[in-house]
Write a structure and sequence with these properties.
heterodimer, A: about 110 residues, mainly beta, seven-stranded mixed β-sheet, four-stranded antiparallel β-sheet, about 50% strand, B: about 120 residues, 11 strands, globular
């Protein structure tokens, strides 16, 4: 099983600042990496697939990068609606696996 | 617009069974692979199972293999999860999710572009 490790667990950021979230895979997942956003009481929402492609309707302030085992989600200028938990997921191998999540909170 | 509506959750005793359903609309259901993903209270996301567009291929997490069965009825646009021999650790919100198109996929599987709102399963005596 591929283990996905996200860091940090919690990120405190002021509105308008940049946020950088990391995700590491225990073995290569090529570019088969997705990022999801989840707000309290809501279902996850797909932000990024293929490591760097924004899903439909996702604002340009969200960007993804990386391949192999190291990945990054960057939110260029945090808006109030961006405070949430973010999960990475690899879909290169079964079982599909998620990282433990990064909570982005207001500083 | 794509809609996924889960149902069938509730409180069940350990060792008993429950069947979840996910009613799909707004897309061609028979063209899309479908996933179940769960989330224990206060915890992260855990992938549970996937079924191919025609039901011919199914894969499961080790934690549910042999106890859970994913299936679909394309004539009813409905996805199912039959859960047997339930344990306390199966307590979670269960989400169904639709696979994206080819560009969302690896050779193995796909990311999920739409999710339902989830149904809560509580396993307790």
């Amino acid at each position: 099983e591929i283990v996905m490790t996200q860091s940090p667990a919690t990120l405190s950021v002021s509105p308008g600042e940049r946020a950088t979230l990391s995700c590491r895979a225990s073995q290569s997942v090529r570019s088969n990496l997705a990022w999801y956003q989840q707000k309290p009481g809501q279902a996850p929402r797909l932000l990024i697939y293929g490591a760097s492609t924004r899903a439909t309707g996702i604002p340009a302030r969200f960007s993804g990068s990386g391949s192999g085992t190291e990945f990054t989600l960057t939110i260029s200028s945090l808006q109030s609606e961006d405070f949430a938990v973010y999960y990475c997921q690899q879909y290169n191998n079964f079982p599909l696996t998620f990282g433990g999540g990064t909570k982005v909170e207001i500083k | 617009q794509v809609q996924l509506v889960e149902s069938g959750g509730g409180v069940v005793q350990p060792g008993r069974s429950l069947r979840l359903s996910c009613a799909a609309s707004g897309f061609i259901f028979s063209n899309s692979g479908m996933h179940w993903v769960r989330q224990a209270p206060g915890k992260g996301l855990e992938w549970v199972a996937v079924i191919s567009y025609d039901g011919s291929n199914k894969y499961y997490a080790d934690s549910v293999k042999g106890r859970f069965t994913i299936s679909r009825d394309n004539s009813k646009n409905t996805l199912y999860l039959q859960m047997n021999s339930l344990r306390a650790e199966d307590t979670a919100v269960y989400y169904c999710a639709k696979e994206g198109g080819a560009e969302y996929c690896s050779r193995t599987s796909c990311s999920a572009d739409y999710w339902g709102q989830g149904t809560l399963v509580t396993v307790s005596s």
